[in-house]
Amino acid sequence: MADVASPLGIIAAAGTLPKAVADAALARDIDVFIVALRGIADADYQGYEHQEIRVGAFDKIIRALKDEGCRQVIMTGKFTRPAMTSVVPDLRASRLLLKLFSSGDHAALEMIREEFEGEGIEVVDISSVLSHAMAGEGVLAGNAPDEKVRATITHGRDILTSLGSFDVGQALVIQAGRVIAIEAAEGTDAMLERCQGLVDPGIGPAVFIKMRKPQQDGRLDPPVIGAVTARLAAAAGISVLAVETGGVLIAEQDEVFSVASANGLSVIGIAPA
Fold first, then answer.
1. How many domains does the chain fold into?
2. Exposed, middle or buried, 6 (CB in 10 Å: 0-12/13-18/19+)?
3. In the chain, how many H helices and how many E strands?
4. Rounded distance, CA 96 to CA 90, Å?
5. In sequence order, what DSSP letters do the residues of 66-111 get, joined into one string?
6. Strands 72-76 and 138-141, how do they pair?
7. H/E element, 174
8. Are 272 and 137 in contact (CB under 8 A)?
9. CA geometry: angle 52, 57, 58, nearest 5 deg
C-alpha cells in the first residue's frame, strides 16, 4: 500500500464509499477528517471527525482541511453536478464556477485538484487506502466467459476506449454486437435502470463493461461498482459484469459477489484495451 499521511482528508459525496475509505484508513492508524458535502453526502458520519460544508464554500473547505492538519485528501462518493443556479459560491468558487460548468467532468476535476494542490494539499488515489477493493484479474464470480462473451467484451472495450478520449462515460451495456446503452451524465446506475426492457434474452448474453477512460487520472472520479450496480444489472437481464483489472473499485465486494451468485451473474476482471 502507498504511504498515506495522517490525518487524511476525505471529501465525501453520496453513498457509503467515503465511510469505507475512512474505516480502512482508521484500521491502519491513519486519522481522518471528513468534509461531508451538504445536500449531497447522505451517510451518517456521527463518530467520525467531520464537518458538513456546502459545495460552493471552497475556501471554507480548504481552511477546514488545513485547520485539521490534512496534507492529503481523497475525493470519493457519488457526485452529481448540481444546477449552476443552485450553487452559492464563495470568492474562490466564483472564480472557478464558469470554467467548471463549461468543462467536461475530468477537466473540471483537474481544476479542483490544482486548487487543492496550490494550497499544499495533495489529492491521492483511493487505491492508496482501498487497494484490496480494486478489481482483480479473471473470473471473480460466476462462470468463465465463452468465446461469444469474450468477443462481446472485446468489442465493448474497444468502443469504451474510443469514447473515453472524448470524456464520455466509463460504462456501457452491449449484446450481440449491439450497444444497448452508454453511460453519460446520469451515471452507471441510472444507465442500468434504463436498460430494463431493452435486453433481448433470445440473442445471447448481455454484457456490462466498466473501465477507466484512457489517460484518466486515477485520483479523480475512479470508476466504482457496488451491490446496487449488480442488482440493477440482474434486473435488466445482464449476464456478465466485466470490469477493468486494477482500474475499477468493487465496493461492498462480499455483497456484490453474493448478488452475482444469487442471480447467475458472472463478474470478470479484464485488461484495458
1. 2
2. middle
3. 9, 13
4. 10
5. HHTT-SEEEEESB--PPPGGG----HHHHHHHHHHHTS-HHHHHHH
6. unpaired
7. strand 171-175
8. no
9. 105
Same domain, 114 and 142: no
Question: Quick check: 217 and 250 in contact, CB under 8 A?
Answer: no
Query: What's the confidence (pLDDT) of residue 1?
Result: 46
Distance CA 22, CA 26 (A): 6
Quote the pTM value: 0.85
- Of 78, 105, 130, which one is at a domain's C-terminal end? 130
Please give the pLDDT value at position 113: 87
Task: Report residue 35: phi and psi, to 5°.
Answer: -100, 105
- Cα Rg of the chain, angstroms: 19
Strand partners, 210: 171, 243
Separation CA 265–CA 267 (nearest Å):
7
Q: Do residue 199 and residue 254 come from a single domain?
A: yes
**CA 148 from centroid of its chain's CA atoms:** 28
Paired sense of beta strands 178-182 and 171-175, if any = antiparallel
Report helix, strand or coil for 19: helix
Query: Coil, helix or strand for 74?
Result: strand
The set of cell numbers assigned to 41 is 453526502
Q: Say yes or no: 183 and 250 in one domain.
A: yes
Phi and psi at residue 75, in whole multiples of 5°?
A: -100, 120
pLDDT in tens, 219-238: 777 899 999 999 999 999 99
For the stretch 60-99, pLDDT in tens is: 999 999 999 999 999 999 877 655 555 666 666 666 665 5
